[in-house]
Amino acid sequence: MPIGKVAELIGVPQKLLSRWRTMGELAGIAPHPQKKRSKAVWEPDAIRAALERKKRQEAARSRPAKRSGSIPKKTRSTSPTVRQIFNAADAKDIRMVDIQQATSRGYDLIMRWRYGKNLPSIAAVEEMAEACGLEIVVREKSEAE
Prior knowledge:
The protein has 145 residues and is mainly α. It has seven helices and no strands.
């Protein structure tokens, strides 16, 4: 089946389909233009299914995974204040990605704060507390403490 007909059947421009074929995106599904002995043939249904599968994989990769139903990891050695903020986030089902967006810090950095590999600045602690609906209060230390 000609490439133009296949492009028309699956609803993509012929140039795009040709580029995918050349770049190996359709390996094993469509014949590669530079490999004369390719066993693949143009099958519009197989190409459409492969493209749908690729879209689903990209969509799954782009959204953060939420560990629903699983027990959240316990916060290890970090400051008690930071630990309380992360425990409150877990209790309120606030995702780390939400904290990342609220604080404008990287996800990996926030995870390092959570597990005690790095310590956040006071400003970052305040931003995290705000994102979790908490307030940081500074008070005088009593004699009993």
